[in-house]
Design brief:
The complex is a heterodimer of chains A (324) and B (170). Chain A has 324 residues and is α+β, with helices and mostly antiparallel strands. Chain A contains 9 helices and 15 strands. Chain B folds into 2 domains: 30 residues; 126 residues, no CATH class. Classes of the chains: A alpha+beta (324), B alpha+beta (170).
Chain lengths: 324, 170
């Protein structure tokens, strides 16, 4: 019995770890493509420093396009059935408006103080998702025939990579109404799309989540990334020290140093593990902020370099070094 | 005598090679990798409309084999794209799942097994015309239109722990 007890405890711990932990779930949102919005007039034009710019007006698209609403509802139903309820763009835009109004009005009961909000906080108050389903469709006509051309792209919001896609044209029909053809198009291409999304998730579990990391230097810092530091018996540039840390801590050392100078570094295709053990010894789901905080601690402990972490969703973080 | 021996050897060889090629053909017909399936349109919500072919000693046997093939193709092989219809990937993506879960699939695909509950509609009864081909003296190839309850089938395999859910691990 004495021999069996430790074995049983170990098994229980292993099972708890295996079944208790889940990776951070990416949020998915369907957004009509810029081409779709602009070609149908759901757009706003303004002049930015002398250059005329046209940007999509998603709110107007959602309010006045019944075909778009139908397609998004159909896709939402299918994704919810597969265990991935979609974030609703229309509701998200409405929430953001309400949130802004409430933030303006909120005041402390004791001193009447308002909510602290920096310009960057305000800038971050936009509709966000980790994977954007960029949707575009056209109802084509030729004589009495109608058919749908459908194009759906799954884009990782941080690495700007297309993780899944499905596109094609439906069979021409003379009798089916456009809403039925649209429903057919969604049913026809969603399985293919979800199959590719599944492959992306399987890759993620096998070789880690793909993220982007930027390292910047505060203007007030007394050094830059070419500064030499003494470490492990060698004099090394800070740029190399950071790169070695990334190499040591990514899954199978997978990353790409896409660009850099004495003031910044941009790491693309960084594969971070899905789980980590926090300082209290508990296993936690990993995201880019947590991963970059490991680099921040390493620089602080070994080189006395303070830094600030700027998070951009689940898949991108910036480490700004020089001060907090 | 020499001529008789030569003739006899020739006959034996002909019989031998003839049998071998027939056996090979029969192995091909009953192969678990031989799926002949094509989309027959976009199915209603949660279903797939396909035309699938089956082989058998009688047209009735071939129809049964076709239904079995429709379900097996959805699980292991996927359904290719067709005019106006996108590709449907295989429900089970794990390599060698048919061997790994052989006990489950033997029970699932046995005669009158549960695979039949995922066929919603079929043009049952031996077809005629181009959909009924007599390829050997006692061998038929028939094509039937089948509606597969694809979402139900996927859910069944997910619940059995054979297929991975899209949100698996999250």
């Amino acid at each position: 019995m004495k021999r069996i007890l430790p074995f049983l405890i170990l098994t229980f711990i292993l099972v708890s770890i295996a079944f208790g932990q889940t990776a951070r779930r990416p949020t998915i949102m369907v957004v009509p493509s810029e081409q779709y919005c602009i070609s149908r007039g759901y757009s706003t034009t303004f002049v930015n420093e002398g250059v005329e710019q046209t940007i999509p007006d998603y709110r107007r698209a959602m309010q006045s396009d019944p075909d778009l609403r139908l397609v998004i509802t159909k896709m939402g139903g299918i994704m919810a059935d597969r265990g991935f309820p979609l974030k609703d763009l229309e509701q998200e835009l409405r929430n953001l408006e309400r949130q802004s109004a409430e933030l303006e009005m909120l005041a402390s009961t004791e001193t009447g103080s308002g909510i602290a909000e920096s310009p960057i906080d305000r800038l971050k108050r936009v509709a966000q998702a980790d994977i954007i389903l960029d949707l575009d469709f056209t109802i084509n006509t030729r004589g009495p025939q109608r058919w749908i051309t459908f194009n759906l792209r799954g884009l990782d919001a941080y690495t700007a990579t297309m993780v899944a896609g499905a596109a094609g044209s439906g069979q021409p029909s003379t009798s089916a109404p456009p809403d039925l053809l649209l429903e057919e198009a969604v049913l026809s291409y969603m399985d293919e799309f979800n199959g590719r999304l599944m492959t992306h998730f399987e890759d993620m579990f096998r070789i880690g989540r793909q993220v982007t990391i930027r390292v910047q230097v505060w203007d007030s810092a007394f050094f830059d990334l070419y500064e030499m530091f003494y470490y492990d018996g060698y004099d090394m540039e800070l740029i190399d020290i950071i790169e070695y840390w990334i190499e040591d801590n990514t899954v199978e050392g997978r990353y790409s140093l896409a660009d850099g100078s004495n003031n910044f570094l941009r790491f693309d295709q960084v594969r971070i593990p899905l789980f980590t053990v926090d300082p209290r010894g508990r296993e936690r789901a990993m995201d880019t902020r947590r991963f970059v905080s490991g680099l921040a601690s390493y620089l602080r402990q070994n080189f006395n370099i303070d830094s600030h972490i700027h998070q951009r969703g689940l898949g991108e973080a910036w480490l700004i070094i020089g001060e907090r | 005598m020499k001529t008789t021996t030569l003739l006899f050897t020739l006959i034996v060889m002909l019989v031998f090679f003839g049998c071998a090629s027939r056996r090979e053909r029969q192995i091909l017909y009953s192969s678990s990798y031989n799926f002949e399936i094509q989309p027959a349109g976009v199915g209603q919500d949660g279903t797939k409309a396909v035309k699938v072919w089956g082989y058998g000693r009688t047209p009735e046997d071939a129809v049964k084999a076709a239904k079995r093939n429709a379900v097996a193709a959805s699980i292991f092989h996927g359904i290719p794209a067709g005019p106006g219809v996108g590709r449907t990937p295989a429900i089970v993506t794990e390599h060698n799942a048919d061997v790994k879960y052989a006990d489950y699939f033997d029970e699932f695909f046995k005669t009158g097994g549960r695979y039949l509950s995922f066929i919603a509609l079929s043009t049952d009864g031996p077809p005629s015309g181009q959909d009924r081909l007599r390829i050997e003296r006692n061998y038929y190839k028939v094509g039937v239109n089948v509606q597969i309850m694809h979402d139900n089938l996927r859910r069944e395999l997910e619940n059995a722990g054979i297929a991975r859910r899209l949100d698996h691990g999250f």
